[in-house]
Specification:
By secondary structure, the protein is an alpha/beta fold. 40% of the residues lie in helices and 14% in strands. It has 2 domains: 263 residues; 324 residues, Rossmann fold, CATH 3.40.50.200. The chain has 25 helices and 19 strands.
Amino acid sequence: MLTSASEFCELLRNDIGSVSMVVRIVNEMIFDLDRAEDIEVDVADERSIPLVEVLERNCLGPQSKLLLAYTLAKSVWQFYDSDFMRIYWTTESIHLFEEKEREEEDDDESENDEGGRERSVDWAPYYAFPFEDMREVETVERLPLGKFIHRYPHVLALGLLLYELGLKRRSKKRIKPGEPATTPEKRINDNAKRIRTGVTSDKWPNIGLKHPESLEKYRIIVANCASESVFRPPTTEDATKTPLQMEEELHIEERRAMLYRKVVVPLKELLRDAGWINESGNIARQLVKGDNAMSKKCHISKDSVSETLLANTSQSFEVAPNGIQQASTVSMKAEAWLENIKRSSLAKELHSQFQNNGVLASKRIRIAVLDTGYDPDAIFFNRERKKRLKGWRDFTVKAQPVGKDEDGHGTHVLSVLMQVAATADIYVARVARDTSELQYSTQNVANMSHMMYAGRHRLTKAKAIEWAWKCCGANIISMSFGFDDEIYVDDKPVISNAIYKALQKTNQQILFFAAAANDGGNRPEMFPANSPQVFSIRGSDDTGWQQPFNPPPDYDASTCFMTLGKDVPGASLSASKHKGANVCKSGTSVATPIAAGIAAILLGYARIHEKELCQSLQFQHDIMLLSLWKMSGMREMFKNIATTMVDKWAYLSLSKFIKQSQGLA
């Protein structure tokens, strides 16, 4: 692990040849994997070149421009609400590198009278930025109503980049040092006007696309970026608000999604039509290497590199390659795991049925989450998702009437649950202010004051359990916490009693899920996960292998279930350094809401296909429903859809059930 900036710089100073050094970023820490890998493009050992210089000298072939346009658009979408957008993206902050000449071409390379050289430039973009002075007025995500004809600087900056890529050759007119600075209003308005006027020209875009429909598609893409109504919803007949009012209510994540639909997807389709994208939607260099319009040699002056921008790269700037976020491979796989559920035919059917079937609309599966609360201002909780949040109750000392989370644990847990059980109605109980309160009784009770404090928190959780089934009608209760053992209050096991009471009052038709533990063999399975009435959940990676943080299973008991619990993306607090964006976390606390969400999907599917399931499984009507809604029935269902990895370890996913459901529907 690299523990200081000097160690990182020392790593970069190591010359290991024309290969890449492999590092991994996990929980904001950099690990040197002590491994080298081959690189697709061997760039010259020279300074990077600003895109503005490349365009002025017409160094890119038309196809390279299209690849660059797609990569830039995808990067802006990916980093839309991150620190990478704190500097205005321009042709001067985007850099390219020269390709290294092949050996047989070395003898042909010669400097001309201007001291330059003829080299090809690779299209892959790099983003250079200073660590100081990172805030410009144009880099706020949305400008206020006023003297701006375009209110979204990130999108306008992308539009300007795409527009200039569509020019045959960029003008060499630049702002010279010492010239008076223009106002933000002038820069924004002039750029918007330039794009809107330019896209109407018959000579634009000159980007090498052969078919008129492709040229028109690129024109529409860039026009969308410069449009005043880029994020304005269309007017409907039954609308009670104006389009501008609806635009004002859009959350940043909703605007980001619209950017993806209006800009990134059309560009992706252009590259797909050209055969340059693989099945994952990534550019496949092996498919475009042979294209004779990729790049061309051009004169690169020794003075063409931006000395003012990259003179002290190792000290003041960071260069991010290809617009690819430096996240661990595992976290990307975890996101793909969740996406497979979201995009499955099963998820689409549940959404359609519960949304459009009037009878089913009031019969959604109900899940109660007991945790540290949630932050309603986190990016994840957009307007549509908030519709699924049906109840809130704060059981802490200073009860809040609206959603609140001071820790972030509950916010992350809730967002993970809602990614899986997207159609369920969710009820949130805040039973602790932070994780130290959640875990309070893991400490030894040393005196009466501690006993009373610990007892109060157990009473809190007991009350929350009763609220969940009695007031919310919860079908599932998710608890991402645990204790070394159950502490009695007034000689009573209050949490166990609350669970037993819930089962009694609901005719056992309620499911409890709890996190097992997170300390490997150093801690046994915790309470209430070790209760026979509760599903104890452990964590796996995206392929189903158990993780070292899991406690060992009880080999005398039934199968223990595990599901995705490693590097799972979920919401952060809006007041945190992540500003409400997704962060990745691992543990049984993360796996628990996923398991609860899987159960909710199974119950939802059973509710929709009640008759078909009875006929297919040859169950009597009442037995079928009652067994699945009870722990015994759900346990059998879990066993049927799970994969046994090793003895007693069953990996829970929906892949088997999704295939089975396709045959039943």
